[in-house]
Design a protein that fits this description.
Length: 279
């Protein structure tokens, strides 16, 4: 692949999604964009880069970004955050929020929906304690194809075997031919929306809980800082943010700090400051 062609595709990915890809990751371009090359009848990545540099290539650019930003997802991935959400966060929100105020949860970079539906299953399990309190779960992603899969709520046998307890499979899914489809009441708990993490999230509103896990690892340092600052602004003053096990806020933002004695859980720095200053 010509260096100039690589630079064209890499610049597109960085500009539109924040994804940073080095020349040592050329194999990823070849693997993930292979289907697109065949569909567009293009001989190689150089030809693709040439088309991307021409006017009227917006649709093709979107397909490139979607192909490269589609990441693996599965139910209850690393179950510790979900256990913390269920045992610590939900009881706290019930105690501190007015009964008429909705609890809002954001699954950022939701991919095909497993994380958002994992949250929905926990909410359903906690419904006796929640009573009639409304819980709003929003899943966002840049990839339209993945969002369509998420809205359908239909998963293969392989997908439901990864992290999903069998009792929840039987309780919340129905077998349809070779697929397992999430029950309609559970699907109705989650809204999926196309959204770019690099965009201004103000229209999404404020959230009590944000899951943004295994996303920052694909960004460079400035983009990580920018995204974390944005997440901090959208987080309720006493809310919490879950990041992936290999991710951190240290050295990237002063607006978020680790929750004491918890790994992968972060809170707003001004919340900690308020708690330390006597009233």
């Amino acid at each position: 692949m010509k260096p100039a062609s690589f630079d064209t595709i890499a610049a597109l990915l960085k500009r539109q999604s924040g994804l940073v890809i080095g020349r040592d990751k050329l194999y990823l371009l070849e693997t993930r964009l292979g289907t697109l090359l065949k569909r567009e009848n293009l001989p190689d990545l150089n030809a693709l880069a040439d088309l991307l540099g021409r006017p009227g290539s917006d649709h093709l650019a979107r397909e490139v970004v979607e192909s490269m930003t589609t990441n693996e997802s599965f139910f209850f991935r690393d179950d510790k955050p979900f256990n913390h959400f269920r045992s610590q966060v939900i009881p706290k929100l019930i105690a501190t929020r007015p009964a008429t105020a909705p609890i809002r949860v954001w699954s950022a970079a939701a991919s095909s929906g497993q994380e958002a539906y994992s949250v929905a299953m926990i909410v359903s399990e906690c419904r006796p304690a929640l009573g009639s309190r409304r819980v709003e779960i929003l899943g966002t992603d840049i990839a339209r194809e993945q969002l369509a899969r998420a809205r359908a709520g239909s998963y293969s046998q392989f997908e439901v075997q990864r992290g999903l307890p069998v009792q929840m499979l039987l309780k919340y899914f129905k077998k349809e031919n070779q697929q397992w489809r999430i029950s309609e009441p559970l699907r109705n708990l989650v809204e999926f929306r196309e959204w770019n993490l690099l965009a201004d999230p103000k229209p999404l509103g404020q959230f009590d809980v944000i899951f943004c896990r295994n996303v920052l690892i694909y960004f460079d340092q400035p983009t990580k800082s920018r995204v974390l600052d944005v997440l901090a602004r959208q987080l309720a003053p006493d809310g919490c943010l879950y990041l992936g096990g290999a991710e951190t806020v240290l050295g990237l933002t002063e607006k978020l700090v680790p929750m004491e004695k918890e790994r992968g859980v972060y809170v707003r720095a001004d919340q900690v400051l308020r708690e330390r200053i006597p009233a």
